[in-house]
Specification:
305 residues, alpha/beta, Rossmann fold, seven-stranded mixed beta sheet, 10 helices, 7 strands, 40% helix, 15% strand
Length: 305
């Protein structure tokens, strides 16, 4: 895969960015670690609050309840992959904690708790971003902007109205195509040769429907796994975020509206969809990719000058 639309010129200086008080909403996953690290590298000094989704427990139910429901809907293969992607980030964090006992320098890829500590951001895990307690937390922080990346909760009107400027979402597809929670899977399952990432505004409770600030097209070369494509698309979105923020700095009302009825919404695949994708050669993960992410979470980072 390559991304011929990205340029180092998009890494704008901090003074060019509109947001000064940023909230990040995120469900940590192993495949999302490169994008997460890029966000903190560029905006770490401005991310003061991180809302992490508590995936297991609470209103969403425990691990067993979610496992059974997901396996009935999408089959065991995809269910195990989705669970591993989330649990894998937690395993990486445990490995990184053990590593810190003997090596002081941070690893190449930091986990969400480590990145929050390093940049002085408050990390809060929540069952429901729309709960009164979470809204109170957001209100007290008084953010300029909320950035949503790989977050499994839908923001309702009170949460959307909290930031001074607005809410941005990094979505790994070329909206309005492939709205919904599994765009990387659907891009591969439909045998597409091109995908991409969209940074759009969240303006109401419709899913992936707000005005578009930035899009980046990305060719699907070879036969990447769902995990590999997910990593590439979220990283491309994180790299393009500074351009979206610079557009907001120039014009707070900017963005191209999506046309109602264009595109398509794809929810979680049914078992028949998962079986057809597997028959077509779609892989959930590539061992070398997963091993590389684990290694980067414990391997020593390059020495800074």
């Amino acid at each position: 895969m390559n991304n011929d639309d990205l340029s180092s010129s998009e890494r704008l200086p901090a003074e060019a960015l509109v947001a000064r008080r940023i909230v990040l909403c995120h469900l940590e996953s192993l495949c999302g670690l490169p994008a997460l690290n890029h966000l903190f590298e560029v905006l770490g000094g401005e991310i003061g609050l991180v809302i992490a989704s508590r995936r297991f427990g609470g209103r969403q139910g425990g691990v067993w309840r979610q496992l059974v429901a997901s396996a009935r809907r999408s089959g065991l293969r995809l269910t195990i992959w989705w669970g591993f992607d989330i649990v894998g980030a937690q395993i990486a964090d445990r490995l990184a904690r053990l590593r810190r006992l003997v090596v002081a320098r941070p690893p190449r890829l930091g986990t969400l708790p480590a990145l929050a500590r390093r940049h002085g951001a408050r990390l809060v895990e929540v069952d429901d971003i729309n709960a009164e307690s979470t809204l109170a937390l957001l209100g007290a922080y008084a953010p300029d902007i909320i950035i949503v990346m790989n977050f499994d909760q839908i923001l309702r009107a009170p949460a959307i109205a909290t930031p001074r400027i607005g809410v941005l979402n990094i979505h790994p597809s070329l909206l309005p195509s492939l709205r919904g929670p599994c765009p990387a899977f659907w891009a591969l399952a439909t045998l597409g040769r091109e995908s991409g990432v969209t940074i759009h505004r969240i303006e109401d409770e419709r899913i992936d429907a707000g005005r578009i600030l930035v899009q980046r097209r990305q060719l699907i070369q070879g036969s990447p796994s769902v995990g590999e494509l997910t990593t590439a698309l979220f990283l491309a979105g994180a790299q393009a975020l500074t351009k979206a923020l610079s557009r907001l700095a120039a014009d707070a009302s900017c963005g191209e509206p999506q046309v109602p009825g264009d595109g398509d919404y794809r929810g979680f695949p049914a078992r028949a969809d998962a079986a057809a994708a597997r028959k077509a050669g779609v892989r959930c993960f590539a061992f070398r990719h997963i091993a590389g992410l684990f290694w980067a979470s414990v391997a020593q980072s390059a020495r800074r000058p």
